[in-house]
Specification:
The chain is α+β, with helices and mostly antiparallel strands. It has 2 domains: about 55 residues; about 200 residues, Glucose Permease (Domain IIA). It is built from 6 helices and 14 strands.
Length: about 290
Amino acid sequence: MTRWLVLLMFGLLASPGDFAAAAPARAKVHSKNKPSAASIAAAQKAQQAARAAARAAARQKARAEARRRADELGLGTRHTAAMLLAGRVEPRWKKAAGGDEAPGTLRFPVVKGWFVRGFGSGAGGYHQAMDIGGEFGWNVRAAAPGVVAYSGNGINGYGYMVMIVHPGGFVTSYAHNTKNFVIAGEEVARGDVIAELGSTGRSHGPHVHFELLVDGKNCDPAPLFRPQVKHRNGEPISVQRAIWRRRKPKTVSCRPRKHHPDYVQHQRKTGQDSLDMDRVDDEDIAAP
């Protein structure tokens, strides 16, 4: 009670000037404790630098692990790429990719990309892939989770290409990139950025030459793509969508690999096994 009386008497006796004089002092104390704009900016910059350094360290560690995995599994060579293009997937590669159950569907690898030409097009139906149009520099993304089996530009006609082995032994390839962002042995998730869209190799404009290989055959990826493939005008292509986990859906067409007409003509003229004189372990690799 005595404390409240003292406070009440002080309030009654104190003049407005006393309160006015105390206000600047309080403001001065608060201004000393408040950080300046420059110090806030410096702290934010330091935090950003620390996060960037942490990301770089994690990326470096992941790359070292990828190189170890590639060496252990025999990934990343031209021979690896030749085997995959010929439809041969070693059991250890499939195991490293995640096992026996296929991914079911595939993510369309270029977010704003469009259908250029599809499976079975070209002279004699040799083009057993889908060409996806886009602009230089657009991201190319992994269609499904898996392990990168090849990343390079050593295969005749394909330019910079990435090949990924997926669960179930699915293999997808992404060719004609401007540059690749992943290395052999690296594990990727569905939708991860793996390359930059371009026009390297035997190409007549910016696009992704996308191949799906399953059980030694090239398969039409269109029924498996999500979202549905569209023409440049936004109209969806005509296709019956499917899901593939263990047994091949009837709506997905698969055929033995065909050679490019130029390859066939060259072989007839010369009797040689490959358009590329620096052959890939004697594998007959048809350019896209």
